[in-house]
Structures are given as C-alpha cells and as structure tokens.
Amino acid sequence: MDYAEYLRRLPKVELHCHVEGTLRPATVADLAKKHGIALPTEDVDELYTYETIYEFLDIFRFVNSTVIDRDDFARVAYESLEDGVKLGNLKYREMFFNPTLHTPRGVPMATVMNGLADGIHAAEQDFGVRCFLIADVYRQDSPEMALAMTEDVLANRVPELIGLGMDGAEAPDPPEKFLASYQLAGKAGLRRTSHASEDAPPANITACLDVLGCERIDHGYHILSDEKVVERCRDEGIHFTCCPTSTAVVYGWPDLTAHPIKGMIEAGLKVHLNSDDPTMFRTDIGKEYVDFIGQNGYPPELAKELVLNGVDATWLDDSDKAELRREFEAELTTLDAQLVL
Ligand code: ADE
Ligand code: ZN
Fold this sequence. Notes:
The chain has helices at residues 3-9, 25-35, 53-64, 70-88, 99-102, 109-127, 143-155, 179-187, 203-210, 227-236, 244-250, 260-266, 285-295, 300-313, 318-338, and strands spanning 12-14, 90-97, 130-138, 161-167, 191-196, 216-219, 239-242, 270-273. The chain is globular and about 50 Å long. The chain has a single domain (3-338), classed as Metal-dependent hydrolases (TIM Barrel, Alpha-Beta Barrel), CATH 3.20.20.140. It is built from 15 helices and 8 strands. The protein is an alpha/beta fold. An 8-stranded parallel β-sheet has the order 1-2-3-4-5-6-7-8. 50% of the residues lie in helices and 13% in strands. It binds adenine and zinc ion (ZN). Adenine is lined by residues 18, 21, 53, 60, 167-168, 195, 198, 246, 276-277.
C-alpha cells in the first residue's frame, strides 16, 4: 500500500464537521426538486465556490434551505457519515449542527434533532460509525436568540446531543457575547467547545477557556502570535480541531506547507485534522490527511499521533475512550504491516 492510500485508510475521529457543510450537490438538487425550490444553477457543484468566510456562510444558508422535513435531516446526516466512512475510514464523529439555520424558517427543533438522530442510527447500523451531536451558537445571532436556541435544544434533547459549540464569522462577534448560552449548557451537563482564533487574536481562545468553560478549541491558528497562550494550552493539554482545507480557502493559507497548523504541531500543541465542511470545500476527511501529511512530508509516526490525538480529544468517557484507542491501535498495526514507503 502506498503512503497516500495508507493515510486515507487510517482509522479516523472527526470532531469538527458541520453537517450542513456536508450536503452532496446531488442531494441539494434532489431536495430542491422535492420541495419546489429554485436553484440559481442546474450544476449545483458550481454553488460551492467562494473566497471569503462571508460568501461561504451565505451559500451555507442557501443550500440548507432545501433541508426541511425529518426525512431530509435523516438523509443528510446519513450521507454525511457514509461519505466519511467510504472516503476516509471514519469511525467516530462529534458533529456540529446549526439550529438557527433551520428554526427561523419554520422547521421545528424536534424535526431537526430527531431527523439527525435517525440518520445517525441508520449510519451506525449500516457502517458501524458512531456519531454524537454538538449544537452550534451562530455568532451573528443576538445573545437572546442564542439563549432561546439553547433552551429549545435542551427541551428537545436527544440522547446523541453531547455539547454546545459556536461558529459563524469570528472577527465581529467576541465569545463573551454568548456567556448566558454557555452557562446554561454547562448547567445542563453539555460539554463545551468553540471556534476561536480562526480569524481573531488569541485573546478569544483565553475567553473561550476561562469565560465560556470550553474544553476544546476549534481552529485556533492565531494562537501562534501569543507565546503565553501557546504555553498555557500546551501545559493544559488543550486539543485543537484543525481544518487545513477550509482555512486554506477562506483565510488565505493556500499553501498547506506554510499553514499555521504546522507551527502549532512544532509548538507541541495537541492537534488533529478535520474536514469542517467537506463537500462545500471539495474535500473529505481522507483527503485532509493525504494532503496535509503528504504535502508536508510528515512520517507515519506523526500521522498516527494526530489520529490518536483525535481519540484523546473525544468526549467519550474514559472506558469508551480506552476501548476506541485499543481498536485504533490494532487497526494501525495492521496498516503499518501493509505500508510500502
Ligand atoms: N460554519 C461552518 N463552517 C464554518 C467555518 N469554517 N468557520 C466559521 N463558521 C462556520
Ligand atoms: Zn467549523
């Protein structure tokens, strides 16, 4: 087996993937037809083209207007996991969804959450992949809207719901704006994470950890501009869910050999790789490892370290995490025996 195939076949955990960013173009076309929604182009693939996070977020909203009933939500969750399994040997995911992308257009929260849970169950049955859900605060919403969303999520809780996160454009809206949502989530026993320092200074990482009670950081690239925050996160073993391709496209790091993720690894931070919005960025979880590890000439030892960082960063309890680690280590040993460098 060559190195690219080996990287694609490594067993993987994914902790930074937005279900709404995983819609297959053919599914968007199908759902648009089903609900009589006009698309601006027959070639739906053409929709997925942008240069800034703001353009991206507009299309993200638009394509998801085709996802309406419980079956639609089940279908997109199922296909999203199927793609992860088939393209990158995905074993386990904690998956974001954006409730306020759906509820303001009249979709009940129960439809969103039960539909996603249906798709997760079906994918586990067919492919053995496991998945939990993280509800995302959308940064451009008001604090009141985010709090109402958090209450609504908790009132419609499904067993798969394990956490609260936050996405959207980071620069204009600081983490502290959403303290009430994070406090409520913490009281209700949800785990907490947030996109931070994707497009803002490392002070946002500190605020997420100290003010919002986050345990992980999604992205985090600008941390490298503050050695003290780097030192703290290294000492505390904070995990960073990094996304090479999405940020290469919308944040101006087109060369993966010069991406800040490299500096984060060199600084001793705990990093693993994720696809973020795979279909929308024309990537998949397998390709993220093939491209980032391959283009940087990293050895198998580092690839395996990143994979196992993903396992350690999950919110599984200790015994389930240890079990997952054993499964991964056994599969890695088998793959190592087949690798021809
Ligand atoms: N929502 C979905 N993908 C996102 C990203 N990469 N950054 C911010 N918000 C997002
Ligand atoms: Zn993201």
